[in-house]
Design goal:
With about 70 residues, this protein is mainly α. It is built from 5 helices and no strands. It comes from Tetraodon nigroviridis (Spotted green pufferfish).
């Protein structure tokens, strides 16, 4: 029953502990686990209330996932 809810929305998949684990395992098998880390880093940025922390978080996301030399480039 829980698995059937996952097809309703991506958010339902990610908010389920088993769903997140299964999706992460799939991404690992596809050598693309950096995508879920990028998603959660962006969600953390989006939910940041402190304006003073936004530029630091944005730079971290850029350095880790976006720049040409990013260790976990997406």
């Amino acid at each position: 029953e829980e698995c059937l809810r996952w097809k309703q929305s991506f958010e339902k998949l990610l908010t389920s502990k088993c769903g997140l684990c299964a999706f992460t395992a799939f991404l690992v098998s596809e050598f693309s686990e950096e995508n879920i880390a990028f998603y959660f880093a962006c969600e953390d940025y989006r939910n940041t209330k402190s304006a003073s922390k936004l530029s630091v978080k944005a730079q971290k996301i850029y350095d880790e996932f976006i720049s040409t030399d990013a260790p976990r480039e997406v």
